[in-house]
Amino acid sequence: MPEEEQIVNKERENVVYIGKKPTMNYVLAVVTQFNNGMNEVTIKARGNAISRAVDVKEIVQNKFMPNVKEKSIKTSSEELTNEDGTKSKVSAIQIVLGK
């Protein structure tokens, strides 16, 4: 399933994948996870969505849930295969928020 079509990973419900949807959709997904009893939520993004992931973290912490703290931020690089078979590297970020 493409990253932008999936907000919350069904296997690990505390992971929110950031894609091309409006920022507030992802903020709502994170806040909902915390309100449903999760003590930790992970925000993941790649490429151009990284800045949106940081925006989501800041909005959640500053506007909706000031008691939520940033546990860790990890950056990495992933290799993707394009439709024409060429490979390219893309930056990725993982932000873990916890109560």
Radius of gyration: 14 Å
Number of helices: 2
Number of strands: 4
Helix content: 25-40%
The amount of beta strand, in percent, is 35-45%
**Spans where pLDDT lies below 50 across 5 or more residues:** 1-5
**Number of separate domains:** 1
CATH architecture: 2-Layer Sandwich
Mean pLDDT figure: 89
Say what the CATH topology is.
Translation Initiation Factor IF3
- Specify the CATH class: Alpha Beta
CATH superfamily annotation: Alba-like domain
Characterise this structure.
By secondary structure, the protein is α+β, with helices and mostly antiparallel strands. Mean pLDDT is 89; it is low at 1-5. It has helices at 23-35, 50-64, and strands at 15-17, 40-46, 69-81, 87-98. Strands 1-2-4-3 form a four-stranded mixed β-sheet, covered by helices on one side. Helix 1 (23-35) links the parallel strand 1 and strand 2 (40-46). It starts with 14 loop residues before the first strand and ends with a strand. It has one domain: Alba-like domain (Translation Initiation Factor IF3), CATH 3.30.110. Helix 1 (23-35) crosses helix 2 (50-64).
Descriptive keywords:
single chain; 99 residues; alpha+beta; Translation Initiation Factor IF3; 2 helices; 4 strands; 28% helix; 35% strand; elongated; disordered N terminus
Short recap of the structure:
The protein is α+β, with helices and mostly antiparallel strands and 99 residues long. It has helices at residues 23-35, 50-64, and strands at 15-17, 40-46, 69-81, 87-98. Strand 3 and strand 4 (87-98) form a beta hairpin.
